[in-house]
Automatic annotation (TrEMBL):
This is Fiber protein Fb34. It comes from Hevea brasiliensis. The chain crosses the membrane at residues 6-27, 47-66, 95-121, 142-163. The keyword Disulfide bond does not apply. It is a multi-pass membrane protein. Keywords: Membrane, Signal, Transmembrane, Transmembrane helix. It is found in: Endomembrane system.
Amino acid sequence: MGEGKGSTLVHLLVVVLSLVAFGFAIAAERRRSIGHIEKDLTNATYCVYNSDVATGYGVGAFLFLLSSESLLMGVTKCMCFGRPLAPGGNRAWSIIYFVSSWLTFLVAEACLIAGAVKNAYHTKYRGMIYAQNFSCETLRKGVFVAGAVFVVATMVLNVYYYMYFSKATAPQAAQKANRTSSNVGMAGYA
């Protein structure tokens, strides 16, 4: 890793994969399914939907964000395995960013997959028209946008997590933590 900076390739891959996931989430929001009511010959109503491409975009965003998180957790060994972190501020910040990035990751993935599933759900027949307030089930606006916002938050937190993780596992940080003698006098009283 070299002097606590971390690998530039890992930083670049995490950012690129997250930005692709962000792009897919925005594209999914712009291409949500919209339905309108049609009547057939027997006076039964049914919903006709436009393109279902937003479901694919939502799943694509889900998978790109998952690959970004998996890459980072594989490189850092999920902070649980591998070299221990040196005590100090870098370890504290890496733990804070680790937990925060996982929380935003889970929220982003939940928004993206829930949006994709809800967008794929289409109401078929509504029955005979006896009321004027029939509507076709569609995905609420903003679900994919919320996922996109959390994708960006996850990306930022992951970059900071990797930066502080690299500093906490650097050889210099480990040498500072493992001092051979203490500066505090521990002589006994006689």
